[in-house]
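Case study.
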Amino acid sequence: THTYPLTHTRRTRYYINPYCITLSLCELRHSASLANKVFIQRDYSEGTTCKFQTKFPSELESRIERTLFEDTVKTLNNYYAEAEKIGGQSYLEGCLACATAYLIFLCMETRYEKVLKKIAKYIQEQNEKIYAPRGLLITDPIERGMRVIEISIYEDRGSSGSSSGSSSVSGSTAR
Amino acid sequence: MKNCEYQQIDPQALPTPTPTPQPHHGNDTEKKKEPRRPRRKWEVFPGKNRFYCDGRIIVARQSGVLPLTLGLILVTSGLFFIFDCPFLVKHLTSCIPVIGGVLFVFVLITLLQTSFTDPGILPRATPDEAADIEKQIDNTGNTSYRPPPRTKEVLINQQVVKLKYCFTCKMFRPPRTSHCSLCDNCVERFDHHCPWVGNCVGKRNYRFFYTFIVSLSFLTAFIFGCVTTHLALRAQGGKGLVFALQESPGRYPLVICFFSVWSILGLSGFHTYLVASNLTTNEDIKGSWSGKSGEDVTNPYSHKNIFINCCSVLCAPMPPSLIDRRGFLPADESAQTGSADIELPTLAAKSEINVVGAAFALQKSPSPVETSLPAVAPTQHLSAACC
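After joint prediction, the assembly is written out as follows.
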């Protein structure tokens, strides 16, 4: 007898991995094997602000349309630009934070963190709708130190899950 | 359904639940009592850092002279408040201890924030990433091992910048990132490793550091001025300066302040110049943008406007910590899959909090900055305040 019912274990395994909370993605991981990973590097042409290259990698040519990929990366770049934008509001926030000896950072969620949550949701949505059906999985760049967007390419093995111990790769880190 | 992962986990889970009668209670002490518990990422962090309060506080391994800095500030301010303030309140105005108190609190808080905040450490590349980078640059295809070339050139705002390959972290360092050998980490927008605060100064804690040295210069100058006034008033009172000096222990702050005010003012001035031109100490020392090699180089990161430079350095949105100290290691990496699943019923409720909490905890250290100093670190013997 199992100590925990199978469904319970399954559901809580989803909770451990917030990027795999739908059935389709976990089925993907357990019925497919990781074939390759593609890394989208940062684009430093405008300085140190967070921006990723929109160049379409050749490994994805057979998997996904170029426009869909470029849209995803451009939307992510826009999110990061929004998070790092300096303007009137950020000056005020900075001055207010300084006046409180930056203690305000301990109490409030910063603007960057709010945008990071939006990004996480967006990536999850993209994974569910667009990438998982094509056997791909995007890892949130924050998991990789904002250096790369890691896209895992899965090969469908066709048969129902043989042991997939090596499937604990890109998306499986718990934050 | 032969889905091996689920089958494998449950038999391992079977024997271990018996020593933990109520896994649903799952508070921190329960987790720690269990022989295998899910580990947090700070416990396997590869750099030379120490962590306190379960990963909320991060300091460099060598605390440098942070205790000395704290000691000097506390002793000087303490002597000032005890010996000089009563006299000055009586003879001048009672604003003096108020101003001094505000400055003192400011200095302490920003010092602790500088020391205990992640300066912008870049996590090391995962093995897959490192392999991908090596594959990209090893395009001759020969099988003998050849170390990757050390530099890559990028164009930033029409200025050629060389990115170096970090052999420790196995990645090309982003611009303005440098590897600190004392902390064994790559730090973004690396300024310098400050022994006085016992931490690197980088992108995330530069504003704390700048506020610290500016408010410390004000505090030092203020104490210097007040003590001088105090002694002058006493000397006028009749018996001469020498007697006034000998009489009051309030002269010690004078000595300390006299020697330190010049260097602190100088440091503040230097960093104000750096902020206004959007430079780091590292770049200034190396002369990266000064064009000393005769080429036409300009700082590609500068906005060419002092006000915008200041705002982008000091008032930009606070970037997140990239090392996720309080996140949990994935179940298979923490080498105890059984207990990781035992924890699941509790983590099912708490992991949402942990996922969100990890983001918050990166910014929050609940008590240490707000309470006064004499709390004792649970695991290490350094003088670090802890929750």
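Observations recorded in class. Residues 111-131 of chain A form the longest helix (21 residues). Residues 94 and 102 of chain A are 9 Å apart (CA to CA). We will return to this complex in the next lecture.
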